[in-house]
Amino acid sequence: MAEAARRQRDGALHRPHQGKLPEPGDYVAVTVQDAGPFDPRVEPGRFITQSDVALQGALVLVNRAGQEHLITTRLPAVIDKKPEQWRTHVTPLGDLVWVSSSGQVRDGEVVRDPGVDLGMLTVEEREQGHHVEQGLPFVARATVFEEEPLDVAPKAPCKTTPKPEDKLDRYKILSYEVEQEMNRAEVEVAQLVTDTIDARVLSDPKTPVDEKWKWVNEGLKPELETLQAKEIYDEWDEADLPLGWKVLPAKVVLTKKPLQDDAVVDPTDPLSSWRAKARIVVCGNHEQNTVGHDPDNASANPAIEHIRWSAACLASNSSWTALVLDIMAAFLNAAMDNDTTFVRLPKVLLGIWQMKIQGFLPSDGLKVGSTVQVGDKQVPVRQELQFLGMVIRRTEEGVALHQHPWIETELERRGWTMVKGAANLPEVVEGQTEPAPRDDAYAADLHRAQSEVGSLFWVGLRTRPDVLATVGALSCMSTVDPRKTYKLATQVWRYLAGTRDKVLFFKAGGDLQEARLSVFGDASLAPGASRSRTGVVVKFGGHVIAYRTQRQSLTAFSAFEAEVEASATAYQLGTQVKTFLDKFLQKGVETELFGDNSACVSNLTKGSEYVQPTRAPHFGMRCSYLRDHLRNDNIPMLYMSGDLIPADGLTKTLSKNKLESSREVSLKALVLEMGSVRVEP
């Protein structure tokens, strides 16, 4: 580009060139300045462009000790060396690689930039056809400017009127069934368990032998040893079973877990970046007279809102501590109707409770490095603890929730650890994508795209609300064009790589007994000329307790209708949090609902003399529902500017400046320096 601009300028000003210089991309030899007595006096490099610093000067890219340097030199001499060419190639197995003209191969998953489409053609392939093997230089030559100098005289601005056909079919109005499918996809993708692996990897011939042995030795072997040590099952021959007894099936659940803090990762071994966890479980739904999700035989994880509430309590009470413990073999303690149950291998019956305590978080009375006596064990006090794929870290400044180890593991699994991060999220243009054909490849593309988006949902729903609106839009787009969705999802990973130091932060201090519950609802009106997107944030005492983004179920005709739907959703989520807080604090928590649409706020706060017409009964009912419940619960509806309302970042992809402002509401940068922790303002 620099050489092209220079030649364009020289041609327009009729300036002669500085003698005969190489072309951009040529291999050249340059003189080494101040070379030692036994050092080489010439080094090779690649000519980039001319330089005005010296007569016949040039900028040359040289490699010194493995690092590339751009130097200014004079009179570079062309080396008779054919430049190497690179292009992308898809192998018969479907893997994408880079192939050079000399036969070298590079893995595309490692060297690629996730923000770039790897199926692209090179510069010469686009401009001169598929003739890389003919030795065309990788850097396009800018000789055209010598032959046809451009006129640099100013010209009168030219107004162009867009053709009518340019605006035709800009938005794709999809069928009702497709719209419903998009809404269902967002819900289903958000519920994907992203770290669960199909147990068929153990029998799949394509699974590497080393990975199979890792699952066996690190996952299945400890599980079997636990069952054998507890003597909780006997082996029977099916021919010896009592008449009329039913055999329940069992299955193996494989899970990839993040590494512990003290684990060592071998950069040359990708299997060392995760822990193998295996569970042998009985399919109890095959037993007669059983009830699904019965509390007596279920062991559910706590809701993420409860974990955030615990973090808020820790931040507001410096004398409190917290511990993380695991009930080992918990499912072996489910109550059973009879003394004996027959299970087809693997077999699981009754067991004994056994706890494993990970550690305590520091407090006023507990310092990092000390221990706490629990029974016959010394439990350490740690700066941070891992729980449900998250890290809970406590400092004097407050409590932070993050998923840095999981994000690092996912980036490493994709080969993107060294990829340069991005400061912006990709812009997801809704409603303008042509639906992909439902051919044989569609199902595989959809599975790949939704798996990728499901992984992003995992981090967004827990600790990174700044990515959630973009991920929600991608989940809806996945059913329309899964390949495009996958490419955009890789750019979200690039954003996470560039902002991997962000955490969900709970500032120390404050009195939760006197705090208010603030509920914020917002909506973006029909970003794809169809259904709007709702964003909700629930804060208590300044701490983010809950947040949500979702596509609305009906198309709103106006901003008023979209905001009414968003306010109703915000009220429902807010009252769920309020019910929990009322029971925990044993008092009624003061609550307020905020919106940024004046028509919506006025309709819900005006007296009987104010009448707001609505187009559809659904939105009218939502408005009446809100009016009655807000009055009955004594919850005020207040106005807040759209630039300040926290829920704005959950309705659409924000620009860089707005994204940074939105993160200030809930996210802070956590900087680790020599074991100390500092929170950036």
Rg, Cα atoms, Å: 31 Å
Which geometry do the CA atoms define?
Answer: globular
Whole-number mean pLDDT: 75
Estimated structural class: alpha+beta
Q: Low-confidence parts lasting 5 or more residues at pLDDT below 50?
A: 109-156, 163-168, 346-353, 666-681
Largest sheet: 6 strands, antiparallel
How much beta, percentage-wise?
Answer: 15-25%
The total domain count is 5
Distance between the termini: 40 Å
Care to count the β-strands? 28
Largest sheet strand order: 18-19-20-21-27-28
Fraction in helix: 25-40%
Write up what this structure looks like.
The chain is of the alpha+beta class. The chain folds into five domains: 2-78, SH3 type barrels; 86-136, no CATH class; 208-288 and 322-387, no CATH class; 398-509 and 658-681, no CATH class; 513-650, Nucleotidyltransferase, domain 5. It is 29% helix and 22% strand. The protein is built from 16 helices and 28 strands. A six-stranded antiparallel β-sheet has the order 18-19-20-21-27-28. Helix 6 (176-190) crosses helix 11 (468-477), helix 10 (442-462) runs antiparallel to helix 11 and helix 14 packs across helix 15 (617-633). The protein is globular and about 85 Å long. The two termini are 40 Å apart. The model is unreliable at 109-156, 163-168, 346-353 and 666-681 (pLDDT under 50).
